[in-house]
């Protein structure tokens, strides 16, 4: 069992060790800080059950939080209903109770994109007004205004105890008829890349983890919340267009990349990108991404027809899986590890990336 240490304390301890190694004049690490970093990073000391639980970003469920927290998930994703009617202090207390219940502090995430997706700023107790979509700020003041907005949002979320904003939307969409258009910047690939880079940088400077979405690029596809989306675009179009903002975000230090449920025929015509090995290979091997890869919400209708979806998600290369039915997902993956379907080394690699992103 890894002893509890907060993400902030672990990061501070790690920084102390780093600076001490390179500067004789720096304060030397104490035995306690060395132990904190060592113990917090000791994946080999974790049980299989503890490691499997780290793989899940679990939908917050007030009626079932005791059971969820008992399994010690790697993350908790909160929706608008989880903030509705609450004051700032009530939100802070709620989030702190989740962190206190876990040995390894969970990532607390939200979708605060602006525009149609505003989980936090939709509550007037938490923000003076709802944040607008990226295009609004771009038209108001260009990339600088977008970076300023990202910084403001990050400060608000961090003050509440939230550690990851599932943003920015890195999809390239210039057609107002596209499903994703209202959530995207609405500009070409080069401008979207500039936007993504600036926002990721601003979020990092203001202590907020970022998540690029929706890899490999949503394009003009239909909404996967309500059904299957099949993308027939040629592979070259992804390299020349859709991948460009993701590459910029990766270069800027994005903490996570979220993979869509779209079926991209030119990469893998047999299954959605979120559970496709070839899609993840492009992200890891060709784009050189070494941070957390996570699925989109596995409760979306596009995934309804697939058997053992959580096992497929882990085998495809996801480090974290966004789930609503945590018990079913946890039991499926745990069983797959125990029967050898999922190699334990695969779990270990994922958990190492998760702990590193958390600051352990």
UniProtKB/TrEMBL annotation:
Reactions catalysed according to its record: Hydrolysis of terminal non-reducing N-acetyl-D-hexosamine residues in N-acetyl-beta-D-hexosaminides
InterPro entries, per database record: GH (IPR017853), Glyco_hydro_3_AS (IPR019800), Glyco_hydro_3_N (IPR001764), Glyco_hydro_3_N_sf (IPR036962), NagZ_Beta-hexosaminidase (IPR050226)
Protein name: beta-N-acetylhexosaminidase
Family designation: Belongs to the glycosyl hydrolase 3 family.
Signal sequence bounds: 1-25
Recorded GO MF terms: beta-N-acetylhexosaminidase activity
Key words, A-Z: Glycosidase, Hydrolase, Signal
Organism: Candidatus Ornithomonoglobus merdipullorum
SUPFAM superfamilies xref list: (Trans)glycosidases
Enzyme Commission number: 3.2.1.52
Keyword Acyltransferase attributed: no
Source superkingdom: Bacteria
Annotated ranges, domain Glycoside hydrolase family 3 N-terminal: 47-356
Swiss-Prot/TrEMBL GO biological process terms: carbohydrate metabolic process; peptidoglycan turnover
